[in-house]
Model the fold of this input.
Amino acid sequence: MSVDEDLKWKNQFKSILMNELVPTQPDRPDELRRVEALGGRILCWDCPRVLGVLSTSRSFGDYLLKPYISSDPELTVTGRTEKDEFLILASDGLWDVISSEMACRVIGKCLEVLASDGHPCGVANSAAKEAAAVLVRLAISRGSVDNISVVVVKL
Done:
């Protein structure tokens, strides 16, 4: 990619972080208080973990840790604008190794290439699906060791 093309991409696709919440890690002060108030403990092995097992304090599943783990998500509401082109829903397996700016550039390029290959507008869902798959492959190639889930929604 030339310098001019690189600048075009930086200016064309701007990521907007939907929230600025700190991940729900067990050593976050409010999560630590919540877990301990329920009788749980945070133990450090390679990182802080609920009962020395789970490295997040909010999760689906993990039945044996249910007394201390919450499946209630932290939510924010953000208004959309006409400039919004897509939404990325992804797990930390992606965000640990790829910045939101890079993810937006990759998706923008995928959608542009698929559109230029003669895909009609009606296949936006398959273009978004392909873009999500590219992000998963990129995260794996960058050495992500966490679960990687990605959904791209074309707006």
The CA atoms of residues 136 and 148 lie 6 Å apart.
